[in-house]
Structure formats: structure tokens, C-alpha cells
Design a protein that fits this description.
Elements: E1 6-14, E2 20-22, E3 25-27, E4 29-32, E5 45-46, E6 50-54, E7 63-77, E8 84-85, E9 88-96, E10 104-112, E11 119-120, E12 125-139, E13 144-152, E14 158-161, E15 172-178
Antiparallel strand pairs: 1-4, 1-15, 2-3, 5-14, 6-13, 7-12, 7-14, 7-15, 8-11, 9-10, 9-13
């Protein structure tokens, strides 16, 4: 009987009053296994085309990621008057040590979106799927996981959503940890 991966679910949020520095980069976007208190101040969206979310917990024992990381993320069109299109997006799982420029790719997923499903209405949302196939990639001691979300659009009013709101999940990803090396 095959041994199945153990999946851990992470949620992407932004916290205004907490900043974490790792590898020479300061983060206030995080991957967490559960939502913190809803009274913590959180920015709902960020108007940027690429955004990183770090899991602040340190890996203490070598493990492997093996299987398909799956989930979703949400974009918001902040344009008050017109719809806009997304042409493609890439979601990447990375690992990093506490050394500047030490980021390595674990796996990534790129999707060119068809013209029938890529339009975001004015002041509207578009939720997109994540499927990253990972084949036995090591995650070593003293490394951390980063989820990078990037999209392409000709409109500068598109935002990545990351509210601290467990009733309307903006970013969710299930990551497969292999039970053995």
C-alpha cells in the first residue's frame, strides 16, 4: 500500500503591525496554519504584480515535499469604471535560509488564462487555482517556505487579496510533506 503525503494547509495574510526579517528581507505577508485574532490590523489587498508570503516557522528536521500543492488565490480589480483582463499568472513555492539571496525554487505553476475566463469586473474579484507538482524536493533544517504569487495584466489597478478573514479565504494552499525521505 502506498504511503500518502501529509498535507498541511496554509493561509496567506498581511499584518500591518508585525514585520519579520529573514534572509535580509522584511516581510509582513505570511503563510499561517490558522487565522490569528480578527482584531489584528490587516491590509486587505496590495496593488503589486508579485508578492511573497513567508511561513515564519523554521524547519527543524529535514523533510521532503512530494505530491501536488493545491489551492487558490484571489485578485481584485480596484478600477472604479472598467473591467480588466489577466493574461497569465505564476505561483511558486520557494525555500530560503537566513542568508541574503539564498532563495531556491521548490516548484512552480504557470497558467495562461483564456479570454473567456480572464476578465475581472470593475470592483470585482477573480479567484484562480494553484496546482504545483513537486517531486521529492528536500526541505532542510534552518530553511523556511515562501509562496510567491505573480500575475500579468495591462491594468495597474489589479491587487492581490490577503485579508485576515477566515470567513472569506483569499489565499489557501495545501502543501504535501512526505512521511519519509
Amino acid at each position: 500500500m502506498p504511503i500518502e503525503a501529509n498535507y498541511e494547509i496554509y493561509y496567506g495574510i498581511n499584518l500591518n503591525h508585525y514585520q519579520y526579517t529573514w534572509g535580509g528581507i522584511s516581510y509582513n505577508n505570511f503563510l499561517l496554519t490558522e487565522y490569528p485574532d480578527s482584531n489584528l490590523v490587516s491590509t486587505v489587498t496590495t496593488n503589486i504584480t508579485t508578492l511573497d508570503f513567508i511561513y515564519p516557522r523554521l524547519i527543524t528536521n529535514k523533510t521532503y515535499l512530494d505530491g501536488t500543492a493545491e489551492g487558490h488565490f484571489t485578485l481584485y480589480n480596484n478600477d472604479p469604471s472598467s473591467a480588466t483582463a489577466i493574461s497569465s499568472y505564476t505561483v511558486t513555492l520557494l525555500k530560503t535560509t537566513d542568508v541574503p539571496s539564498s532563495i531556491e525554487t521548490i516548484g512552480s505553476y504557470t497558467n495562461d488564462i483564456s479570454s473567456t475566463s480572464n476578465i475581472i469586473a470593475s470592483k470585482g474579484y477573480l479567484t484562480l487555482p494553484i496546482y504545483i507538482v513537486i517531486s521529492k524536493k528536500p526541505l532542510n533544517e534552518n530553511e523556511k517556505i515562501i509562496l510567491r504569487i505573480a500575475y500579468t495584466s495591462s491594468n495597474t489597478n489589479i491587487c492581490i487579496c490577503h485579508a485576515n478573514d477566515n470567513s472569506d479565504v483569499d489565499i489557501k494552499i495545501k502543501i504535501p510533506f512526505a512521511p519519509t525521505g
